[in-house]
Every structure is written in C-alpha cells, then in structure tokens.
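PROTOCOL LOG
Step 1. Enter all chains and additional molecules of the complex.
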Amino acid sequence: MTTLENDIPQSSASPRYVLGRHGQAFSTRARAQQIRAEIEQLAAGGRDVLIDFEGVRSVSYSFVDELIGVFATRYEADNDSLRPVVIGLTAQAQRVLLGSLEQRGLSDKASRELVPH
Amino acid sequence: MDASDLVGLHPLFAVRLALWMERQRQAGRSIEVKEPQDEASRRCFRAFRLEKYIGGVDEALVEDDGDVIIRPTRLSELTQVDALADKLLQPLIDQFDDVAVVRDAVLMAISELCQNAVEHGTSDAGCVVAASRGEVDGMSQIMLGIGDCGVGIPEHLRESHPEFVADEHAIGQALQEGVSGTRRPDRGYGFTWVLKETLSSAASSAEMFVRAGRGAFRREIVDARVKDHGWNTSSTRGTWIACDWTTIGRPDR
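Step 2. Run joint prediction.
Step 3. Record the structure below.
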C-alpha cells in the first residue's frame, strides 16, 4: 500500500514526508526500511527531501538509525545522493538521532546540515 | 496449579506462566488453577488473563484494571512491535501518569528488546511481552517482562563472538555498546539505548534482569550510577528479560 504524503510547502521545492501522519511511535528497522523506500519514491530522483517528525512522540534508536542514519551515511559519502533534512523533532527524537549520527561517525557539519539545531 | 500463596506478580513471571499454561493446553492437559489469596495479586492474576490464550496486539492493553498495563501478548512479526509501541503511547500518558515520566525508556525497551526477540527468538512462541505498574516504598514503579523461547542471547552472540564462553559473560557483553551476533557494525546498540533513555528519564532507580542459557545478569541504576553483576545459574531455554523503573516525579505533559 502506498502511503506517500506529497505535501510540498510553498516556500520550498523540496517534497515533504510527514511522518506523524503514520503514527506517534516508531520502533523497528523494518518499519524504517519501508518508510525509507516511500521517501525515495517521493523524492523521485530529486536531491532534497524534508522529513517532518511533527506529531511523532517516540522513536527507537533502531528506527531512527535505519531511516535517517542510512540516508545520512549515503549523503556524506556522496553529496549528489538524496539529502534528508529532518525537522519537527522532539527532544527525545533529536537526542536519539544525534546519537545515531555520532555512532556512524558523521561530521558535526553534516549533522547540522541534516538536522538543523 | 496452586498460586494461592502468590504475593506480587511481576510481568516476566506472568509471561512465563502464560507460556507454561499454553504448553499444557497444547499437550491436551487441563489445568486447575488456585488463584492468589492476596487481593491485589488476584486482581493482577485475573487482569493478566493467564487462564486464557496469549492474545495479539489488538487485545494487548488492559483498560479496566488499575495496575496491569499490557497482558501477556504475542508479537510474531516486527510490524506488531511498532503497533504495540504506537498503541501504548497515549494510554501510558493518560492512564498511568505517575509512571509516564519514564515512557521514553519504556518504549525504547519495548522497541529494541521485542525487536531482538522477534528477530532472533525464532521459535513458534514468538516474543511474549507484558507490563504492569505498582508501588514500592511509596514510589511508583513500572515493570516490563519480555520472553522468547529461541536460542538465547549467549548462543546467538557466540555466532560472531566464540570467545564469549560463559553465558553470564556473554549476556553482560550483549549489554555493551556495539556488541552483536550479526557481525554488522551498525547493530548491537539496543540495550545501550535502553540504558541511555533510562538515564535521561525521571527514574529514581531502575533495574534490568536478563536470563538466558546458564547465565543471569542484573544491571542496577541508582542515582545515575550503573552497577552490573552476572552469575551462573540453572539452564533455561530462550531469553527472559525484566525491566523495572521506579519514579518519584509527576509527568511533564
């Protein structure tokens, strides 16, 4: 089942994936892989995509690492690949996401570019 | 089964009991149950619905009991782990506000540890999880029990770490950052994140107990200090995990 949310803000040409429309809590790598595939489909070969965590109240390390960590690792290795910009994070989600990026050895510059904070 | 002397019923014990009773029924044995005489324990015993089948996520949450949060629930697919966490979040905030301050740690534990059990448990029993709240020394407590009947943490870990010979040592290593049986560098962080979220939470103390193979391991967290202790014990099949968080604060909604 396709559950894409192609909600493109007027101020930006980047497609936006609103994670909160699919639940409030996210747990597994399998769920992240499914959502990552949907985001790749939404981006349709474009460079940037906004991943909006507004409304998401709990995320696990595995979920965030598999969703954003994988995108981020690819982007740091190849700046022409999809760039996920993550917005709307709760303090918990930001803590976990920054932990994932740190564990993956991402530079502080890349972390700040992908997760404005 | 005589449970008449039972006082207190930890969710991990409920999980083990539910699986044992299921096996008896599958073997065609009828079970006569003597319920706990202690009123609170009897109410818990009934709310856990131990005499009936182990249900799925749709029946997981208990809405009419003050203490039982999740009755023994079978998670056979990873999608069910996500579904349980998503389903639990709002009731945890609305109905169990004295323990909701540790919800990030509780949900991290359900997410990471149930995911491990579903992925590596590999038995027909799947992963079975239960949770309840209680009080100790005037403070609120939330308790979680997770079990599976798979190969167990030590045997799984030895697939990539044959040097972890003693089971209690293997369990202790599984709780360390980046140690996994999968050989993948991005794995082996689940237990660590349960600890991190516990330390970030308003828990005044917490404890994790893990039993698998011939090993047992206890991690205690008091005043942000972590104390680990492992020991050798009698053999068990599967992996059995109990997590308890004690809170003193009110939730910041």
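Step 4. Note key features.
Residues 103-121 of chain B form the longest helix (19 residues).
The two ends of chain B are 43 Å apart (CA to CA).
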